[in-house]
Amino acid sequence: xxNKLSNIxxxxxxxxxxxxxxIPTETVYGLAANAYSSxxxxxxxxxxxxxxxNPLIVHYYDLKLLKKDCEVxxxxxxxxxxxxxxxxxxxxxxxxxxxxxxxxxxxxxxxxVRFPNHPITRNLLKKLDYPLAAPSANISTKISPVSKKxxxxxxxxxxxxxxxxxxxxxxVESTIIxxxxxxxxxxxxxxxxxEINRYLKLxxxxxxxxxxxxxxxxxxxxxxxxxxxxxxxxxxxxxxxILIKKRKKISKNYFYLSKKNNLKxxxxxxxxxxxxxxKKNFKSIAVEGIPNKGFGEVINDRLKKASYxx
Length: 310
Ligand code: TXA
Ligand code: MG
Description:
Bound molecules: threonylcarbamoyladenylate, magnesium ion
Strand content: 15-25%
Helix content: 25-40%
Structural class: alpha/beta
CATH superfamily of the largest domain: DHBP synthase
Number of helices: 10
Mean pLDDT: 93
Number of domains: 2
Number of strands: 13
Distance between the termini: 38 Å
Shape: globular
């Protein structure tokens, strides 16, 4: 991590001028702007080519500022104590007098909030008197970024600063949990569903028809825009082959997400591997069957969405 204080100062300067910057988080890199500013948040949508109807997640340092914007409830406080800062986002009720820009919420009465666990971004959030709206720092529907270089590849010179926080430790987005009425998981992610259920002593389901409730969970997403085939035993010769179990044979078209069949490690390497394959100009990708449990469920969710595109 090469960041000096001067970079944090630069970040604050740009953000105060309503500009967007790239920020590291433990899940994926975000494209951040002042969540209270309509000018700043409008720029996020423009840069990402993101439909206006898709609301943004807002990032806070702690509960102090959050309580000005949202109503907190018991499930939230319980989860917050255990998992935040960390890879989980909560949908809460927005307070009527909240300063959050209407761009962020698409006029909804709810807000997605998160407390990212990365020292650079926490340091930045602590110094600001506004929270940061930050979707993943990729062009809409494309692969999420897990390094400074990935963000540069997405936006080039269109953004003036990307804070370098090394490669994202989790490598997939946060779990999104709706806590407005009965808790419901809207997106699988960095905290496994099973763990949340065990902790809350509930049986919360993943609602994968949650497109309306979580507008960003549309069909095409996380996509390399290359033909992608799932549950494949043996790939074709000229096809990139994504694997999690080590094979005896060595081949140039093999890309391991994990050599030890470790699903958490595999999730961490997913987006990085998809980008690598795209850069190598493969025209087709095959993926070995991945067990649908824990982080395997997250990987399968992302790959399924990545495989739909026109
Ligand atoms: O790990 C993450 O969550 C990353 C990092 C940068 O924090 N952020 C991220 O943001 O993944 P984004 O915008 O790429 O995905 C946010 C998802 C979208 O699917 C959006 O529709 C949903 O959250 N969302 C945002 N506000 C919502 C709300 N009020 N109700 C339901 N879903 C919401
Ligand atoms: Mg995203």
